[in-house]
Design goal:
With 398 residues, the protein is mostly helical. The protein folds into 2 domains: 45 residues, no CATH class; 271 residues, no CATH class. The chain is 74% helix and 2% strand. InterPro entries: ZIP (IPR003689), ZIP_Transporter (IPR050799). Belongs to the ZIP transporter (TC 2.A.5) family. One of its GO terms (molecular function) is monoatomic cation:bicarbonate symporter activity. This is Zinc transporter ZIP14-like isoform X2.
Length: 398
């Protein structure tokens, strides 16, 4: 059964009706009677008619690629492998930023990148993947979904302002109540210096006693750490395998989305890759830091990170094959959109919303973080909106 809701090329329409160009020339009346309903329906579609109008204005660019055209097999595989390779190289960038991880500039840049990831992932899901799930891409749909982005951003701003003011108010009140204590965030962990912790096996539930000096308590913890170090290989293996499996599954779905997107159009593929690249860089840096803290060397952490990234190639191959040979593309786009929204709204957005609550920053530092977060989110939104609004006018040279 013909999928008349798609804006198909002439060759694809002929293949759906088991016709050739010779049939149109030799048996014009019967061939036109067969294909005419599909042509009339596509003419009635605003997206198809708009695309035809744009083609009329750019007919002289014979070697350019327009968004509505179906990419060739070489373009799909070539651009797909190239983009996945570039994204996977981000998994190795952690080794180059290790010396900078303790610097303030690194943390500020990472704050901006996380905001950028939220903006691009949410924008890609709402403006590109979800419309392709329902196989519509009209300007009205784009602007309606842009209103969804605006709603998310407005409530994010409201929450951040409330947290900033409430945090400032709480800190001022606690400073007045606790004279002489400067680190409010660590207040609940502090004890008077003249009453050290002391541990004995036969004392109260808290394990406090006057019979054992503080030094012995520290030695006990050192001994415990040494015991953990003896079993370090098990601990390292567990953390490493968890990251390889979890991140590998994530990268596999990324590859599916990239493959299916490039099968639809080159512009859809590139917009999906931009969103994934913006999300992967801070994500991979975080995984790299976790692997280093678990006891792996820099080379081992790079190897584990890159191993999980290879799953993206598997997803790419399956996404391209499924996208080219079946009609399962909308389901892949729906799966990818769900993952993008979850990562952006359930994982990253709460993290950047709470980042200033974890430490008692000065007001100027908190405002700087707030501005960087907003700059990243708005940049991501802007990139996806521009790609979506001007997709008809963007040409990709083949």
């Amino acid at each position: 059964m013909i999928e008349v809701f798609l804006c198909h090329s002439v060759d694809k329409l002929l293949s759906y009706h088991s016709l050739t160009e010779e049939d149109l020339l030799n048996n014009t009346a019967a061939a036109l009677q067969e294909i005419c309903p599909s042509l009339l329906y596509q003419t009635a579609l605003h997206s198809c008619s708009h695309h035809d109008h744009e083609d009329d204005h750019h007919h002289d660019h014979d070697h350019g690629y327009h968004e509505g055209e179906e990419p060739t097999t070489a373009q799909v595989w070539g651009y797909g492998i190239l983009c996945v390779t570039i994204i996977n190289l981000g998994s190795l960038m952690g080794a180059f930023v290790v010396p900078c991880m303790d610097k303030k500039v690194y943390k500020l840049i990472l704050t901006y990148l996380v905001g950028l990831a939220v903006g691009t992932l949410t924008g890609s899901a709402l403006l590109h993947l979800i419309p392709k799930t329902y196989q519509v891409h009209e300007d009205d749909v784009v602007w309606r979904n842009t209103c969804i982005l605006a709603g998310i951003y407005i409530f994010f701003m409201a929450e951040r302002f409330l947290k900033i003011f409430s945090t400032r108010k709480d800190l001022n009140r606690e400073k007045k109540q606790q004279d002489g204590i400067t680190h409010i965030s660590g207040m609940h962990d502090m004890t008077p210096h003249d009453e050290p912790y002391k541990i004995t096996s036969g004392d109260s539930a808290l394990g406090l006693s006057d019979s054992i000096p503080t030094l012995e308590t520290k030695d006990a913890f050192v001994q415990k750490d040494n015991d953990l170090t003896k079993n370090g290989k098990v601990h390292i293996a567990t953390v490493a395998y968890m990251i390889v499996f979890g991140d590998g599954l994530h990268n596999f779905v990324d590859g599916l989305a990239i493959g299916a997107s490039f099968s639809t159009s080159l512009l859809a593929g590139f917009s999906t890759c931009i969103a994934i690249a913006c999300e992967e860089f801070p994500h991979e840096l975080g995984d790299f830091a976790i692997l280093l803290k678990s006891g792996l060397s820099v080379k081992q952490a790079m190897a584990f990170n890159f191993t999980s990234a290879l799953a993206c190639y598997i997803g790419l191959v399956i996404g391209i094959v499924v996208g080219r040979l079946t009609s399962a593309e909308p389901y892949i786009f729906a799966l990818a959109a769900g993952m993008f929204l979850y990562i952006a709204l359930a994982d990253m957005l709460p993290e950047i919303s709470n980042v200033a609550s974890k430490d008692n920053f000065k007001l100027s530092q908190e405002l700087k973080i707030f501005l960087l977060q907003n700059a990243g989110i708005l940049t991501g939104f802007a990139i996806m909106i521009l790609l979506s609004v001007y997709h008809h006018q963007i040409q990709i040279k083949g």
